[in-house]
Amino acid sequence: MKANRKFIEADERAVSAVIGVILMVAITVAIAATVYVYVSGMIGTGSQSTPTISMTSAPLTGGSTCTVQIATVGTPNINWTAVTVSLNCITNATAMPTGYATAPVFVAGSPNTIGGGDLISVKGLAAGNQYTLTVAYKATGGTMGTVSWNQV
What pTM, to 2 d.p., does this model score? Predict the structure, then answer.
């Protein structure tokens, strides 16, 4: 016993074994919780879903214009700058208009966000062809909605 006492100095104090165990358990629980949150996908950007819209079309009889109306929007406050509008002629690829209007003509709601009642005017269409207008969400690349019509 005398041999062990020569290494102890007057001001040295040790942490209790109980406190040491409590600290080690707390650190282990904190690390386990961090790993669980990371693995379960709560940390990070997460996955984005594509919002949805429904549209109706009203081709002008005997004309080269069609008006597509946004009927409902599944997710509010989506800016028009966050979407792309594309047009496809199903029956005849050469009947695609050049410079068709992709900018919406706003009737209702905010001029910057997509809302029910907003109109997209498509010009330069050839009669007797079937067209499809697609609105896609840029962030995910997914299709928000499509509408097809026969130009009369």
Answer: 0.63
